[in-house]
Amino acid sequence: MHATFAMNPQSVDIVDAATKDDILQQLSELFARAYALDATQVLEALLERESLGSTGFGRGVAIPHARIAGIKRPIGALLRLERPADFAAADGMPVDLVFGLLSPEGSGAMHLYALAEISRLMRDEDVHEALSDAPDGEALYGLLTNASDRDAA
What we know:
The protein is α/β, with parallel strands linked by helices. The chain has a single domain (9-152), classed as 3-Layer(aba) Sandwich (Mannitol-specific EII, Chain A), CATH 3.40.930. It is built from five helices and six strands. It has helices at 20-35, 39-50, 109-123, 125-133, 137-152, and strands spanning 12-15, 56-58, 61-62, 65-68, 75-85, 95-104. Strands 1, 2, 3, 4, 5 and 6 form a six-stranded mixed sheet that branches. A hairpin with a 2-residue loop joins strand 2 and strand 3 (61-62). The longest helix is centred in the first third of the chain and has 16 residues, at 20-35. The radius of gyration is 14 Å and the shape is globular.
């Protein structure tokens, strides 16, 4: 599906989260459910990275990311928020799309390539609008699959 990271239908969801901490908690739980990971380990890694500076990308998007032990390749998860929430983004705008990325410990370039792919995808106005309008998680996953396939073509 993606050249640089894996996703599955269980790794997308639409949630109600009002704060950055709540968003990161729900993202960690989504990663845990979708990939059989420890939610606490994921949350700690995301919080540690977030302490270096907000991963609020701008234009309504955040890309929280971290490296953790126990995974073989980068994996992604997407939360769409029912209402935009403050994520301390660079442009000061609230976010409604939160694209999480976890990579194996010690994955330097691989992690950066995956972040770049997500960044390109989220900068695409058509993709961003379609994700914002998707009725459910299944539609979100389908849009991501189609967008990344088109991007790779």
